[in-house]
TrEMBL record:
It comes from Podospora australis. It comes from the Eukaryota. The keyword Repeat does not apply. Keywords: FAD, Flavoprotein, Oxidoreductase. It is an enzyme of class 1 (oxidoreductase). Its EC number is 1.1.99.2. Its cofactor is FAD. It catalyses: (S)-2-hydroxyglutarate + A = 2-oxoglutarate + AH2. Residues 54-424 form the FAD dependent oxidoreductase domain. Belongs to the L2HGDH family. This is L-2-hydroxyglutarate dehydrogenase, mitochondrial. Pfam families: DAO.
Length: 430
């Protein structure tokens, strides 16, 4: 997917203490007005925190959390984003699928927040005219092992009240003649696609309409919990940005929310002692694109999961313009900056896709984009009740006051973003 920045950042050096709601941009404006921190003395010395909430990370989850909290706290929220625009990492380099919530197991945060988030996301799309479409999804089985996986998913979906049903193969062939399924097709009618950039722009607009403060190109270099117990008197953050010169600016907030995505473990490690530090693993997903020509497909197609495969298989998705995308695969890399498409994986992609789309014209398949998924372990996603599953980590950290920590926020993070935001709000306000 072409990486489209959500806002064209213009140099605007403005102290956070001089915030003005009169300059709050609306969705109709072409530019976001980012606020870079200048060298301003923290007001904590005068007994008052600069902000009620500091949200670290301006991806889709951070944006959803920030707009919720800005509305709740009368705008006393700063959203810290290390890049010069919001949503430039995992949030803009994914399949843009609205997931149904049928893969992640009973009682998991991924299941519960995906199902709730899906409902909220469709509602938000309808309210704010965010481009989206309920395409539905077919999960196809070519052998007995895959058929067993489909039966398991079907049973689990019924258990959690997510609508799915098996299709008659002859009828399915009439609907999507190019799709091959030797054993069975399970349809998920509530799955869809969304313009993730339009979603993030909407969330950003809602955040700034609530007088939230956006600080772009603002990298958090250090975090200090104040008081005893830790955080009981707030938090001090050292933020390095274009307006602060060589020395970071120090700001304070009553609470901090670590929603930094690919940098979330690094933020976690700034706070905790050495014995509690964690390691981040980076799962790169390569995507290859295909023009909306022949064969034509209008439904998302996923292969049924098989044991030992690190993910949900190379699936067929599409954007709202009809351009077909294949991916993501799972390639473990050492750096979150490794975003070049690994073209050596193209033959493997073609082999996987031709199992369910045999008429694929190999000459029209091209490398497109890659994204990185932040993971707490080198374990792939598994269906329903399988092993090796790693859930979302969303916790008020023990031993600290006012710190909500979000780790391992990968798929279905986009679908779940609004439900995650509601959960964070509940953690802070109930």
């Amino acid at each position: 997917m072409p990486l489209r920045p959500l806002s064209a950042s213009r140099p605007l050096i403005q102290a956070f203490s001089a915030r003005s709601s009169s300059s709050t941009p609306r969705l109709t404006q072409p530019f976001v007005r980012p606020r870079y921190f200048s060298s301003t003395v923290s007001r904590h010395a005068r007994g008052k925190a600069d902000f009620t909430h500091a949200v670290i990370g301006g991806g889709v989850v951070g944006l959803a959390i920030a707009q919720n909290l800005a509305r709740r706290s009368n705008g006393s929220v700063v959203l810290l984003e290390r890049h010069s625009a919001v949503g430039t990492e995992t949030s803009s380099r994914n399949s843009e699928v609205i997931h149904a919530g049928i893969y992640y197991g009973a009682g998991s945060l991924k299941t519960d927040l995906c199902i709730e988030g899906k409902k909220k996301l469709y509602s938000l799309c309808n309210k704010h005219n965010i481009p989206h479409r309920r395409t539905g999804k077919w999960i196809v089985a070519q052998n007995d092992t895959q058929l067993q996986a489909l039966e398991q998913i079907h049973s689990f979906a019924k258990e959690i009240n997510v609508p799915v049903h098996f299709l008659d193969l002859a009828d399915a062939k009439k609907r999507e003649p190019a799709v091959r399924a030797e054993k069975a097709i399970l349809e998920s009618p509530t799955t869809g696609i969304i313009d993730s950039h339009a979603l993030m722009l909407t969330l950003l607009g809602l955040f700034e309409e609530s007088s939230g403060t956006l600080a772009l190109a603002s990298s958090v270099e250090a975090i200090t919990p104040l008081g005893s117990p830790a955080g009981s008197e707030g938090w001090e953050l050292s933020v390095l940005s274009p307006g602060s010169g060589e020395a970071p600016t120090k700001i304070t907030a009553k609470t901090i929310i670590n929603s930094a995505g690919l940098a979330a473990v690094s933020i976690h490690n700034l706070i905790v002692p050495a014995s509690q530090k964690k390691e981040m693993f980076y799962a790169k997903g390569n995507y290859f694109s295909y023009p909306p020509s022949t064969p034509k497909v209008s439904t998302l197609i996923y292969p049924a999961p098989e044991p030992g495969h690190g993910g949900l298989g190379t699936h067929l998705t599409m954007d709202l313009g009809g351009r077909i995308k294949f991916g993501p695969d799972v390639e473990w890399v050492d750096s979150p900056d490794d975003l070049s498409v690994n073209v050596s994986r193209l033959p493997q992609t073609m082999d996987e896709v031709k199992k369910y789309l045999p008429e694929l014209d190999e000459t029209k398949l091209e490398p497109d984009y890659a994204g990185i998924r932040p993971k707490l372990g080198k374990l792939g996603a598994v269906a329903a009740h399988g092993t090796g599953f790693v859930d979302f980590y969303i916790e008020k950290e023990k031993g600290y006051q006012g710190w909500v920590n979000l780790l391992n926020i990968e798929s279905p993070g986009l679908t779940s973003c609004l439900a995650i935001a509601d959960q964070v709000e509940r953690m802070l306000y109930t």
